[in-house]
Amino acid sequence: MILQALPPRILSVRRLPNADPALLLAYGADPQRHRSLGLVTVDQDDPTYVALDEATKHADVDVVFAKSFYAGARHGSGPLSGEILGVLAASTPDEIDEGLRAFVRCLESDACFYAADDAGKTAVFPHVIAALGRYLSALAGLSPGDALAYLVAPPMEATIGLDMALKAAGVRAVRIFPPPTETNFAAAWLTGPLESCEAAALAYCEAVVRVAANPKGEVWGS
Q1: Fewest CB atoms within 10 A around its CB: which of 26, 107, 157, 206?
Q2: pLDDT higher than 90, residue 82
Q3: Exposed, middle or buried by CB within 10 Å (0-12, 13-18, 19+), for 56?
Q4: 4-112, CATH topology level
Q5: What does each C-alpha distance from 130 to 54, 71, 121, 152 come to in angstroms?
């Protein structure tokens, strides 16, 4: 399948080279190890989680805070809020800069949602991470370097897609996020050999496209 990419928009990127210890603590950093913060907001949350993980593979940074905002980017609290705030912490501003560069590269060239219908109203995130970094591997209970299929879609499409993905390849679910998530989507993380993760992501995406095109299915004879 060739689907239309829906590139994420990076709305703000700022660095605090010498953050106040109270602020470090508030955002989950350790003032004994961390001095600098890098803050980002983006209009797509799931690609941002992937990009934050990517940053940990290229710089000595920790993801200390990453949370989606309720109801999604269209209901942000301000023009720079987007759908998520992510915070990197490091001992030096240079490490923050390196992590932010890797973060931006990932969002500009790799991680994004795709339109699953002609109208562009149904979005799917059938992303495969060939080798996890330190952030997502810890959340998934896996090891850095493991492969992960990171799958997201609206509730109905995601449920049908996950069933197809699990049956299509030798993968196992490490986390399932039933609806409603903060942005009212549903998601799952699957792991296995890279080829299996890729096959699962393809099956998931195909199922999402089919449901979007024929939402009532055989039950209604449509």
Answers
A1: 26
A2: yes
A3: buried
A4: Alpha-Beta Plaits (3.30.70)
A5: 11, 30, 28, 17
